[in-house]
User: Which sequence fits this backbone?
């Protein structure tokens, strides 16, 4: 689906009339939301600056979960909103009371993992009459940890990934992005002012090959290192992508849990590693899954898209709320990995420790150059 085919929302939403505030929220089934959210706080994303956050803090943009709305919650500056909201812009004089066409507010966002952006959602949930008239998004790739001043320097060349586009209030405004480049930061622009509840940036992680080479041994499946979930048998309670998020799970829905099976089958997840690799050790964690952890697990690998699957960890009993560690008999070459759990249930994290092969390191470096890294 191209950006021209993405559903568009414009105009005000009706004033809140009570009941479920999401009952009239406008949204769509965007084709890119199965990808990694590069602006996920768990990956290290942050809103590092904004020109104005008078009514509501910029950090709200990246909060997990949907925005909440309390119609009775007011503070000293007015209605308390769960999003980023700026004050109303004014012109320069009584004779010119309106903002100019170029006047706008902005926020700088550091992506948690640099990558190729495939889609962006700017959700104006609960901003029914105080949303921006239009938005635009620019992106840039800078090394290291640039400050807001570094990003705003006049010699920094930003790429427009979402041109100035009208948006709707109380709506998930989605945009497909067609820029085959690696980006590290975004500049979110509101024209001329208003509020945005949530920002989601969907894409593919593009790790720095020099960093991975320096690490030597690292988690080959981790999202931040370029691993990804290709498919899963079941995502009923929580997404399979949770299994390769940073850190240990902190609650039950921070892992992967399937519905209860009533047949004789089993559940599974298939992963793609960042590049051809050698796996030497495995962790399977069932943290916080106590009465619903998988009973057994097996691990298989393959080389290439059409290679045969080879079992490297036979069906092994798992304990609830436990981190299981396995040292393989020797390095195992792989581009893809599949974990099968029996019969159902879930795991919280999968870690695959090893290193890139020489060919894998070369391929990753070549891709990095193609993306402008």
Assistant:
């Amino acid at each position: 689906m191209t950006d021209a085919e993405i559903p568009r929302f414009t105009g005000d939403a009706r004033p809140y009339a009570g009941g479920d505030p999401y009952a009239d929220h406008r949204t769509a089934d965007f084709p890119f939301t199965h990808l990694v959210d590069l602006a996920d706080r768990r990956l290290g994303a942050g809103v590092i600056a904004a020109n104005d956050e008078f009514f509501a803090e910029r950090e709200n943009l990246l909060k997990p979960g949907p925005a909440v709305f309390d119609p009775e919650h007011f503070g000293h500056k007015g209605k308390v909103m769960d999003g980023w909201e700026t004050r109303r812009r004014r012109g320069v004089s009584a004779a010119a009371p309106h903002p100019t066409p170029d006047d706008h507010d902005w926020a700088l966002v550091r992506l948690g993992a640099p990558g190729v952006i495939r889609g962006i959602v700017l959700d104006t949930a609960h901003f029914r009459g105080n949303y921006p008239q239009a938005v635009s998004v620019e992106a840039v790739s800078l090394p290291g940890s640039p400050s807001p001043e570094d990003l705003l320097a006049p010699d920094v060349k930003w790429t427009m990934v979402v041109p100035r586009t009208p948006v709707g209030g109380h709506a998930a405004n989605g945009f497909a992005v067609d820029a085959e480049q690696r980006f590290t930061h975004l500049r979110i622009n509101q024209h001329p002012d208003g509020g945005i509840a949530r920002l989601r940036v969907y894409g593919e992680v593009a790790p720095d090959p020099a960093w991975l080479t320096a690490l030597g041994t690292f988690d080959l499946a981790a999202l931040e290192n370029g691993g990804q979930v290709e498919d899963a048998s079941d995502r009923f309670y929580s997404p399979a992508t949770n299994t390769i998020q940073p850190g240990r799970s902190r609650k039950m829905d921070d892992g992967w849990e399937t519905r209860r099976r009533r047949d004789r089958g089993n559940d599974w997840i298939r992963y793609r590693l960042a590049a051809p690799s050698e796996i030497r050790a495995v962790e399977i964690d069932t943290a916080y899954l106590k009465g619903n952890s998988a009973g057994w697990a097996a691990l298989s690998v393959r080389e290439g898209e059409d290679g045969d699957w080879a079992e490297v960890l036979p069906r092994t009993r798992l304990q609830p709320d436990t981190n299981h560690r396995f040292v393989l008999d020797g390095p195992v070459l792989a581009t893809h990995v599949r974990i099968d759990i029996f019969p159902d249930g879930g795991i919280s994290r999968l870690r695959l420790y090893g290193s890139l092969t020489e060919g894998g390191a070369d391929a990753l470096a070549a891709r990095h150059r193609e993306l402008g890294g």
